[in-house]
Predict the structure.
Amino acid sequence: MDVDYCRNPKCGIYIKPGRIKYCSGDCRNEALRVRLGTPEERHKNLVRILERERCPKTDPLWSLNYYEALLAFNGFRCQYCLGDLSVWSPTGHAMDRVVCFKNGRPVPHTAANCLGGGVCKDCNEVRGAVLSVTDMFALAPKLRELRHRKDVGRTFFDGKEVTTITIETKNPPVVVVGFQKEPDLRIFGPSAKKIIEETYVYTEHRKY
Ligand SMILES: [Zn+2]
Ligand SMILES: [Zn+2]
């Protein structure tokens, strides 16, 4: 009899044999995160692009140390939404070019043409071929608010859609979380404390 298990080593639950390798999207992302989310693996992706674009060998982007420092500068969070890259962009080089096209031609990846930190997949898609870096930073407060709500939904409420997060008091920690089509929930204790700390990261702590 065919037996198959989720390929996420931390999960390993039984799944139907076939093409699907993971029991859920979360397990897939977690496994990829572990395997492909290290700075070394991310840098390999970037190096392939640098080779293809014939980036000058003197450019700092060739250096793994330089690249890792770029990601670490912002605590491995997205420059725009501040989402944790290991969660919201588990693979890929995460570099965003300042200028992508000029006179209809792609502008290559160089240290001078890349933002000084990583960018997540969602923000990369939001920017697309339409928005500039300046536009993205103008949107950043909203992107951060949305990302924070997604993080709280994901971490504490099984991915439910969180619509509002209100800090009632900091000490003792009390937070009111609103949901789509469900009554508000009042959170106390360590969870509330964690939500308040994260809210601080997303709103007060990092201003560019
Ligand atoms: Zn699994
Ligand atoms: Zn982002």
Remarks:
- The chain has a mean pLDDT of 91.
